[in-house]
Amino acid sequence: MFVLVNLKAYPCDPVAVAEAAATVADDTGTRVAVAPQAAHLSAVAATGVETWAQHVSGVDHGSHTGSTLASAVADAGAVGTLLNHSERRLRLAAIDAGLRAAEDAGLETVVCANNPPQVGAVTALGPDMVAVEPPELIGTGTPVSQADPDVVEEAVAAAGRVDDDVPVLCGAGISTGDDLAAARDLGSEGVLLASGVAKADDPEAALRDLVSGI
Amino acid sequence: MFVLVNLKAYPCDPVAVAEAAATVADDTGTRVAVAPQAAHLSAVAATGVETWAQHVSGVDHGSHTGSTLASAVADAGAVGTLLNHSERRLRLAAIDAGLRAAEDAGLETVVCANNPPQVGAVTALGPDMVAVEPPELIGTGTPVSQADPDVVEEAVAAAGRVDDDVPVLCGAGISTGDDLAAARDLGSEGVLLASGVAKADDPEAALRDLVSGI
Amino acid sequence: MFVLVNLKAYPCDPVAVAEAAATVADDTGTRVAVAPQAAHLSAVAATGVETWAQHVSGVDHGSHTGSTLASAVADAGAVGTLLNHSERRLRLAAIDAGLRAAEDAGLETVVCANNPPQVGAVTALGPDMVAVEPPELIGTGTPVSQADPDVVEEAVAAAGRVDDDVPVLCGAGISTGDDLAAARDLGSEGVLLASGVAKADDPEAALRDLVSGI
Amino acid sequence: MFVLVNLKAYPCDPVAVAEAAATVADDTGTRVAVAPQAAHLSAVAATGVETWAQHVSGVDHGSHTGSTLASAVADAGAVGTLLNHSERRLRLAAIDAGLRAAEDAGLETVVCANNPPQVGAVTALGPDMVAVEPPELIGTGTPVSQADPDVVEEAVAAAGRVDDDVPVLCGAGISTGDDLAAARDLGSEGVLLASGVAKADDPEAALRDLVSGI
């Protein structure tokens, strides 16, 4: 199971969460990555944790003021990137371009989608992984694996019909080891989580509980 | 073969083009539709031609000032809509929502895409038809079927891998009967065209030449 | 006082509201206009009511699939357009371009803004009128003139500091004659309203009550 | 004169340009700042140069995956930010929100605009500085101060009519000391430049030539 902690724009200390994640990853052998804002990438990567970007632009070098290029996040230490998170939905052509840019920069990719048909769609673009996150469950604390287990199974099926080599992650409301175990049992090969760790009083304890479900 | 004439925002007389299209459709038995701007839909539909929208929003009734709802274009006489044209690229979630809204309003759908992977992606969302239009060839007068025949065949293959019941149209640079015949021979079941008819001195003659390729 | 009824994407019958507005305008001598979706403009204009668009694109004729040009809404019978409604916020450059396009097409303009500083900003672009609509009050039924009278007075002052010839309208929660009278007393020269008329059981009665405040 | 070097998404070494800028600023006493991509901010700030962001989002802490918050760029060492660059045009409400967010994070602000009316508009929002950059001259190598001197004088006048305490910078095509001197003589209190330094074989020499115009 791959555990990807999205720090969003939360008022957490990104370095503290990164250090907690690095410790839990080392202690348990679980793959845990942390995705901070672009401006925090260098500081997070310096902790040694696997570092991901939350988004990259699909453009190449050039006159693109205010963009975050795949090559720049790689310079800052990122080894992967989310694309099309429900809080940063992209045009279809931009998902495609972002995947090409990430690939050129050597970044691994997880493309998010809201529902099984959209999971099928993004799988057709050739990402490394896809993730299903029903927007209505994000931030609720109710895990998708419990609130809507069918959506996880259908997402796995939808991806599989297009390309059965693309792992499916799930997210929304995941915070405990039970949630993670339930996600795995539904066919998910990893989880996206955010507030459950980033807003926890003790992020390391929250992560230890989570990975206990593996 | 389905011939869909996109009037874009050209300075043509939409009613004159619609009347020409209606005449050619009646005389030849070819399916020809015309897609004007939303504000011109009623006038175009009044000619009796098959009328399509260029875009619909994916939202439902509500507080959405400045939107064009599927139900509103249906009220105005449209029976179908384009979605995700390269000049109106949409977020993946908006293509999905637009398809649902169009379906609810009884509209037929053509979802456009720039390249074969994107054609595969949009096919997974369940449209009635898909169309491949390489952006770099739009408006060039060089038909996609001649400039880049592989892209048409690959688009047909990409759609077929996801769902082989979804017809593939092609567009970009199509204007003559030869272009249309070439598109058909590459597996396309219709064409999108725009300037070749909308900017022609004699739109009816341009359409007659085009459908002679069938 | 100018009364502009924005039908948004409500599930109302736009022609019935337009007929009610035309009747009240004729009977009372009040200036009342109706702004339907672009696809409904022709049908609304055919009632004889003063017809406005909810939005126009700032682009000129050309390859702009899915756009609504100022010239097209004028073709359909519109004599004015809203720009930058809080449900269709525009880039600053697009407000500027939309104003130029509207002017070229002979359309009158009302540019909306969320707060007094933004009212000052849009006044600098040379619109015919500006409107302040605090987004948090839209659709609440609580009139801005009562919930936040200072915002109306400050908006009038902010516009006046830039150009004191530009009338200021206000909107959000306006529905009764008392609301309209209060808006006028705060310096507003008109009102934007939507649900109070468009969702009323009897739009004509709602409008008669509203204009009684003048 | 304030010299702000925008690195855009150019394939330059941001640290090398930053070191050159720091050296020239120290040697000449000129205020020179460098604005890299968000992911490069920490590395640029570590050189000691005055560091600016190219863009910040107007949102506050929360569920905003893929955003760049003002507080995050400040964490990374930025002391100011551009907003509304013509390559990252913002909705009017987002410029306003970005200014509030920047102010809360202690960042200085330069809001860009395409023409004098837009300069007047953004001045009404209360930025620290404004900048006029005619988009058609960006990247041309033809300085705005020579190609279109009126636009600089009119921008200074437009800002002054709204608030005469807001300094006006200019940009587009600026690269030499003569360009800078001409900009100053037209009323500009600084310059934005990009390719003239970022793409120079010797950025330090390019900057020395530029500041020789002061």
TrEMBL record, chains A, B, C, D:
Database matches in Pfam families: TIM (PF00121)
GO molecular function: triose-phosphate isomerase activity
Origin: domain of life: Archaea
UniProt: substrate binding residues: N6, L7, K8, I138, G173, A194, S195
UniProt-listed GO biological process terms: gluconeogenesis; glycolytic process
Family annotation (PROSITE patterns): TIM_1, TIM_2
Enzyme Commission number(s): 5.3.1.1
Cellular component, GO annotation: cytoplasm
Top enzyme class: isomerase
Keywords (A to Z) from UniProt: Cytoplasm, Gluconeogenesis, Glycolysis, Isomerase
Cellular compartment(s): Cytoplasm
Function comment: Involved in the gluconeogenesis. Catalyzes stereospecifically the conversion of dihydroxyacetone phosphate (DHAP) to D-glyceraldehyde-3-phosphate (G3P).
NCBIfam families hit by this protein: PRK04302.1, tim
Protein name: Triosephosphate isomerase
Organism of origin: Halomarina ordinaria
Lineage, broadest ranks: Archaea, Methanobacteriati, Methanobacteriota, Stenosarchaea group, Halobacteria
Recorded name of the encoding gene: tpiA
